[in-house]
Design goal:
Radius of gyration: 44 Å
Bound molecules: phenylalanine
Number of helices: 11
Strand order of the largest sheet: 1-4-5-9-8-7-6
CATH class of the largest domain: Alpha Beta
CATH architecture of the largest domain: 2-Layer Sandwich
Number of strands: 9
Order of helices and strands: HHHHHEEHEHEEHEEEHEHH
Structural class: alpha+beta
CATH topology of the largest domain: BirA Bifunctional Protein, domain 2
Strand content: 15-25%
């Protein structure tokens, strides 16, 4: 091959290569073009292999032309690669674009359970008097649920609480939130103002006003010089905040082994305003909680000196308060999880 032919072939190779590069539409075909023209066994190498047949003085010229062809092809390859990259990016952006002007999908919003609402309202009211919320365990020891509360084994007062026992000896499902009194006294130094809301369990036949699980809120105040008058004033303030200023209240004598003296706290029936109706069993009053001055034995079991400290405690039924608040007539509805009921709150 002579110089002229070789030069012409190189020019043809460049033109064909440029065209192949321009028409490559994806990275894979572009790479195939690169291998075909500039690879170790590519067309340019093969053509330049013929350089040995030229006279010595022509070789540098052909080498220079070969270099220019290589440079031209490499530049074109790079340019095309950049074009393909930006086209791919454009396509991705278009594909993944989010239309921010579309309206959002609506989602269902839940609401607080009426018992939770009631609990919060109770905590809010007592919170204004400095009471702080604590929680105790639902599985308790016989010691804290009964013995430390001045109810020894075999004491007839145990009949007040029909108990669900566990397989573990000495452990039971708490029948009231009162064991929380022991927890708090053992863990906190007076002055104590504690509120203990929680679920309780009793072995009861279920009907419209009894459940085997129900909710209570325990209150405990311990300080030097705490009196029954403090208890009465606090409970009055609570009843007025919950049921209105004009609602009369009263203390009746009661009995609990862990308080002495003990009382039942009544509010005038919110259904009949005291006239007497089926809801209040025609008495005109509704009992909303039990209370009393903490028994000295209980203070001692809580690690406190009854000569120095006095206290009061109360236990109110959350379900009972919620029933009065919302006019619900069947306690079972609270735990049935029927959305037709729950969505009303
Ligand atoms: N624990 C008692 C009950 O469940 C209520 C109560 C609490 C009474 C605190 C007095 C003091 O019946």
């Amino acid at each position: 091959m002579d110089l002229e032919t070789l030069s012409a072939r190189l020019a043809e190779l460049q033109a064909a290569g440029l065209e192949a590069i321009a028409s490559a539409t994806d990275p894979a075909s572009l790479e195939a073009v690169q291998v075909a023209y500039l690879g170790r066994r590519g067309e340019l190498k093969t053509l330049l292999g013929g350089i040995g047949g030229l006279p010595a003085e022509d070789r540098p010229r052909v080498g220079a032309i070969g270099n220019r062809v290589r440079e031209a092809l490499e530049a074109a390859l790079q340019g095309r690669q950049a074009e393909l990259d930006s086209a791919a990016l454009e396509a991705r952006l278009a594909h993944e674009a989010v239309d921010v002007t579309l309206p959002g999908r609506p989602f269902r919003r839940g609401s607080l359970h009426p018992l939770i609402e009631t609990n919060r309202e109770i905590a809010r009211i007592f919170g204004q008097f400095g009471f702080v919320v604590y929680e105790g365990p639902e599985v308790e020891t016989d010691v804290r649920n009964f013995q430390a509360l001045n109810i020894p084994p075999d004491h007839p007062a145990r009949d007040l609480w029909d108990t669900l026992y566990t397989d573990v000896p000495g452990h039971l499902l708490r029948t009231h939130t009162s064991p929380g009194q022991i927890h708090v006294m053992q863990q906190t130094a007076p002055p104590i103002r504690a509120l203990l809301p929680g679920r309780c369990f009793r072995y009861e036949a279920v009907d419209a006003s009894h459940g085997f699980e129900f909710f209570q809120v325990e209150g405990l105040m311990v300080d030097e010089g705490t009196t029954m008058a403090d208890l009465r004033g606090l409970l009055d303030a609570f009843a007025h905040a919950m049921f209105g200023r004009a609602r009369p209240t009263r203390f009746r004598p009661g009995y609990y082994p862990f308080t002495e003296p003990s009382v039942a706290f009544d509010v005038q029936c919110v259904v009949c305003d005291g006239a007497g109706c089926p809801s209040c069993k025609r008495t005109g009053w509704m009992t909303i909680l039990g209370a009393g001055m903490v028994h000295p034995v209980v203070l001692r079991n809580g690690g406190l000196d009854p000569e120095r400290y006095q206290g009061f405690a109360f236990g109110l039924g959350t379900d009972r308060i919620a029933i009065l608040r919302y006019g619900i007539n069947d306690i079972r509805m609270f735990l049935e999880n029927d959305l037709r009921f729950l969505e009303q709150f």
